[in-house]
Amino acid sequence: MFKRSVAVTGKRLVSDMAQSATPMEDALRAKITEALNPTKLEIFNDSHRHAHHTAMRGVTSRESDLNRVFVTSEAFRSKMQPARHRMVYALLKDEMAQEGGIHALQLKTRTPEEEERQKQEAAEQ
């Protein structure tokens, strides 16, 4: 599993995604950062786990299963999970629609308070 975690404190522009080894991840990170200004953003690339699946035959993308994205953002305040997920899906619609694009996506969307509460609960266990 590949995981890249970044505590986001400001906007980060991705320069020349065509030269990147992870252009799909870079596109997701840029779009989510631009639109949602997350305080925490984790993108997990599990593509290697699914390379042997029948549906993946002939697919050359090593990023088709960036299938876990965890986002903490104020933009989710007062929104239920389905609305939060629709926000993220709307941002990533091009990456999900393109040939060889993302075909599986699991989201965890939290507000900063929900993130802090989850940390406290984990610490108590």
UniProtKB/TrEMBL annotation:
SUPFAM superfamilies: BolA-like. Residues 110-125 have a biased composition (Basic and acidic residues). GO terms for cellular component: mitochondrial matrix. GO terms for biological process: [4Fe-4S] cluster assembly. It comes from the Eukaryota. InterPro entries: BolA, BolA-like_sf. Residues 102-125 are annotated as: Disordered. Belongs to the BolA/IbaG family. This is Bola-like protein. It comes from Lojkania enalia.
